[in-house]
Amino acid sequence: MRLLRQFLVTSLCATLSWALHESDVGVVDWHKKLIGVPLYHSLQTAPVFYQDIVYTATGNNVLAALNATDGSIVWRSIFEPEDPISAFGVHSNTIVSLSGPGGATLREFDLFKGHLLLEKRLHDPLLGHLWEPSNLGTSIISTGASSSSDSSSSTILALTNGDTLTSINSSTGETHWEWTSPDKGTLIIYSKAITTPTTAYVIGFAKSASSFTLHVTSLSMLDGEVIASVNIPANFKNGLTDYIAITSGSDTISSIAWLDQGSIKAASLKPNLKGQVFAIKGMQYKRIMDVGLSHDGQFIAIKEDGAAQVLLLDPQTSSLKVIWEFTDSAPSKLYSDSHYVGGLNKDGEPRIARVYWSNVHNRVVHQVFSAQLAEGKGSVSGFTFPFETSVHGIVAHVAFDVAGSDESTGTRFLLTSSTGSVQLWQQDLLSWAREESLATIKVAEIVEMPQEKMTEEHVRLEEEGFFERVTRQFSDAKNLPQYAVNFARRFATGSHAPISISQDEESVSRDAFGFRQVIVAATSHGKIFGIDSSNGEILWSRVLGLGWAAEVGGTVIPVKLYVTRTVSDGDAPQVTLVTQRRADNTLVDTVIFHLDVLTGDDVRAESKSPSGAILEGFDIISGPLIEAFMLPTQNKTIMLLDEFLQVRIYPDTPEAEAEFQALAPSLHFSLRTGGPGQRKIMGHQTIYSPDLSMYYMAYPTWTIPFPPEEDVKAIIPSSPGLLASFGHVLGNRTTLYKYLNPHLTAVLTSSLSNSPPTCSIYLLDGVSGSIVYHSSIPAASGVCDVKATLAENWLVYHYFDDELAGSGQSKGHRIVSVELYEGNDIDEKIKSSDITSYSNKSAEVTAYERSFVLPYGLAALTTTTTKFGITTKDLIVASRKNNIQSIPRRLLNSRRPRNKPTNEEMEEMLVQYDPLLPDDARLIVSHNYEVANVNRIVTAPSLLESTSLVFVHGLDLFFTRTAPSNTFDVLSENFNKVQLVLTIVGLATAIIVTRPMMRRKRLRERWYR
Amino acid sequence: MTHLDYTSIDTNKWKNLPPPPGFTNFSSHANSRAPAKASAVTSSSYAALKQKRAWDLALSPAKQLPMQAFMLYMSGGGVQIFSMGIVFMLLLTPFKSIAGINSAFAPFAPNTSHANSSSTLPLQKIAYIACNLLTLAVGLWKCRSMGLLPTGTGDWLAFETRGPAPEISLF
């Protein structure tokens, strides 16, 4: 067996190109490491400065450290999807995170390297309470002073699950003590904890009939003994935001404050929990805000009129007092609502910054308040900076620190915008920006660029004088020397200059082989990007406008992206983005954006809008979208179905309408219907009946009688692409005709209530609804995680095989390759690609399948696509080991013989079946990059038939190009063109030299014969 | 010094030999009867000789076959320049020979018939064609064994066409 595998590996060496040459790294590929958009809605996960590093937890479930000076990633730690980060805290030399349901797992990382130092499960994730928001009831408190005698270790207090406070030694992970509330979170949710050196206070709330009550329990820091527990009747509306716990700067005095029917009430906390509730009189408030300075005794309260006040817990009197009111902070038309955020300066003194957008200056204004407590006064220093709100949306979150000694110049602001841009501003200068919304790409397409156009200036020749003409022609010829040098080099060496260099910066045009294309990617943060595929630079980006929902707020969620005009149609390519806009008042609309791929300009706009303005869409359906399809017509019309299955056409021009009407009788499509858990698949057609609707309507034509518990999880269409051959020729020159039904659709279903639970994969004919192929797959641990891709007649799917009881199979990742051929035998053909689906013959199909064991799990898989479909299709997979691999079709051939291949089989280049696919590092195309949490792989053809472009998005972006059958259409790199050119030149000179000699000789011969 | 002594040749022994073809005895006009009889004898044997030579020519391709088979065997089954050259020769020569069959047999045609007519020497020509077809068959057999004959469906796959499907599926 081992010998055999070695043979296989050597045969691989002989026939495959080596995956990636070291010299190609960074030339053929690029990689963008991202962290995701910071989770700024909670103070426990929002970005914080610590020395020169910004720590944040992000929406992609990553705990990351960014270098505040240049914005590079210092380290990042990717959490599993079922283990969401709920809180993190910087704790002396480590950073501590709580993740999982209710904060089930505590992890401790090194601050500067990101090494995992400690991992501890605090409770079973299955026992975690699921509250909304998910990080309610979890909190990390680090106590600077150690309670034990060992000075090197310190104590972490973790409040988890809303009912448990655990004291943990930060270096050994030992639990000092643990306290669990008596009612185990059923009634009281403990959501905040605060400590003094001797006492820990846990504060929770419980909902009573009309309002909330506060519960405070004081514990001894030494052994976790309950000292006292009281209920405070507090009358606040929102249990999440309306109360805060604060300690004064010296950490000895603590207090809780809450909003009680418009007034702020506070209770001082003492270990025995005896004390008075007092109120700040004379003022009406509508909100109180924790700005992250609760350990320094400061917080913000918003008055009834919207003005913001800074309140301080006075350590002397243990009472709250107003120390500052920001001027002009009441809502106004002149400026936006303000963000208040706390930070510490170099000496650890608290500062509060107020950041808002000024409509007067069109700049972001920030003010930093510093309290001079000794004098009982405060001072504010301010600055403005030119934040581009039309490019980045509005400021959604601010974090700041005072790095320099001077308060006004040394202040750094980290802005997170609503479109997911993370920017660091120092004074009015942008230090760096990261487009983190690229970690949330929903739809992406690779679009070909046009060839460079000769810029012809319209010169009136007759009006031109001689000198003008000469100067114009000289200026036209200014690139000639460079061109000549390039030509000479290309002619002599045969190597094209790297595409990133040969292009001049301004023009958007393709290179010789079409490797430079535009990746259009729409993110879930309402922004669409045009990315240069040659280097990953962002060519343009546009903010997707909210339309009327801008008043109430909302989000735009990209659904589908269609290339509606390609280079071959002439003119600049265009894309149409179909989105669903969810306004905050729960209304859902379907909005279409139509863009120019090269510039990002709105195609619909009559006048060219100033670049950088927000892109406004077209509300095509005032309601949700069921499905969108692109018609295979000249104009690439888009057909949308609203919730009443009425057909809308975009663009709604008469020609598009006519095209649709001509096609309507023969259009078939399948839709998922039914609610979650009982989704069915139904085939539909369209009909026009004027008494029902003014639009064409879709009506069901077939459904598949799945068992009631079987739920349709996904519909995977066949990946488009040209086809070179209708069959596969065997060694004896007979043919297996490929089953090329153009209506073939893969459907993944799950039947989890079966015992044992199973998943299924079907291949359906989308017109008649007949099942062409069906396979049942075990559902490992009750989850259907099947990934599949369908191209031509080739279906590949991947699943995790759990150990089946009694079958003796071992568990592991499986990949199954299925090839469909026409008829029941060799040489039988039914012309499956052009017969009607209702023909009896259309179901005559033979499936060849082979299953392979994969040494790793897969996150996504797809096949390569090339211009004409001649090149073999390889399988591109994103493995759970965070790399991208290209598995050759030869290895996945479903006709690999089980015995030693015969001569005829050898002629077909079949290798003997080996259940285990090699875990070969040469198959990796992503070098040593970490390409994590891949969502989707997009492949596109280049102008070279041999080469396919591969774009991978997920948390990271990765782009490369692969040549499954080697680059047969370009000269290989080791071809000695210099030698060839020299030989030709030498022969040419020899001819030139010898020709006159020869002529003379002949002449002489005639005279003296 | 030596002299060639022709007189010592015994001419009687060679007296009855027929003159070489094309030789006309100018001196025999004095005595015409005896040479006329002799020429009748010589022309009949000459015709028989022609027949014999025509049969030789007709069967010559078949006689070459063993040699050609040996060459094919030596050239091997691969598609290489030598084997291809031999195969081309085997495929082309029969056609060439059949095309030039009349001129090839013209020297052997009897005096009575037209030299370049197809109807002269019919048996020999049929045999010649059959032998050439045999050579051609050997060449084709070689082609087949090398996989150069388009006999399988796979060889015609590239010429297959498919029209558009009557129904349109949207994805």
From TrEMBL, chain A:
Keywords tagged on the record: Endoplasmic reticulum, Glycoprotein, Membrane, Signal, Transmembrane, Transmembrane helix
Domain ER membrane protein complex subunit 1 C-terminal residue range list: 791-1007
N-terminal signal peptide: 1-19
Transmembrane helix keyword on record: yes
Annotated transmembrane regions: 980-998
Topology within the bilayer: Single-pass type I membrane protein
GO biological process entries: protein folding in endoplasmic reticulum
EMC1 first beta-propeller domain boundaries: 19-436
Pfam name, any one: Beta-prop_EMC1_N
Family membership: Belongs to the EMC1 family.
Name assigned to this protein: ER membrane protein complex subunit 1
The organism of origin for this protein: Serpula lacrymans var. lacrymans (strain S7.3) (Dry rot fungus)
Automatic annotation (TrEMBL), chain B:
Superkingdom in the source lineage: Eukaryota
Pfam families with a match to the protein in the record: EMC4
Transmembrane domains' residue ranges: 70-92
Annotated coiled-coil segments of the chain: none
Entry keywords, A to Z: Endoplasmic reticulum, Membrane, Transmembrane, Transmembrane helix
Any one annotated GO CC term: endoplasmic reticulum membrane
Main localization, broad class: endoplasmic reticulum
Subcellular location: Endoplasmic reticulum membrane
Membrane topology type: Multi-pass membrane protein
Family designation: Belongs to the EMC4 family.
The protein's name in its UniProt record: ER membrane protein complex subunit 4
Protein species of origin: Serpula lacrymans var. lacrymans (strain S7.3) (Dry rot fungus)
Biological classification of the source: Eukaryota, Fungi, Dikarya, Basidiomycota, Agaricomycotina
